[in-house]
Write a structure and sequence with these properties.
DUF1318 domain-containing protein; 105 residues; elongated; YdbL; mainly alpha; two-stranded antiparallel ribbon; TAT_signal; signal
């Protein structure tokens, strides 16, 4: 359920800003690695806004830990600024990322 403070009008703006922050904050090597890992079916986007191991492979655990740590920091900042539960922020971005990249099966 959306919070009154996290209006439908603000959600797309926050989504764009958070995704931009995630991309800018990511190490370029990991950004390429994430795209490759997605393309190879090694990782998938979860409903919780985090990436999860799908098939695995060498080095994917470090990538998952790095990307998820950065995402959680961003999600915590958004939750604190908008005074909404962290789980609500994660669910919103999980849905957004699954819509863009596909989700875990």
């Amino acid at each position: 359920m959306p919070s009154r403070r996290l209006s439908r009008r603000r959600l797309p703006l926050l989504a764009g800003a958070a995704l931009a922050a995630l991309l800018l904050a990511s190490d370029p090597a990991f950004a390429v690695g994430l795209d490759q890992a997605r393309a190879q079916g090694m990782v998938c986007e979860g409903r919780d806004g985090l990436i999860h191991k799908a098939a695995g492979g060498p080095g994917v655990d470090g990538l998952i830990a790095d990307v998820n740590a950065k995402r959680m920091a961003t999600y915590r900042d958004i939750a604190a600024k908008d005074n909404v539960p962290l789980a609500q922020v994660q669910a919103f971005y999980g849905q957004t990322l699954q819509g863009k990249h596909g989700g875990c099966r």
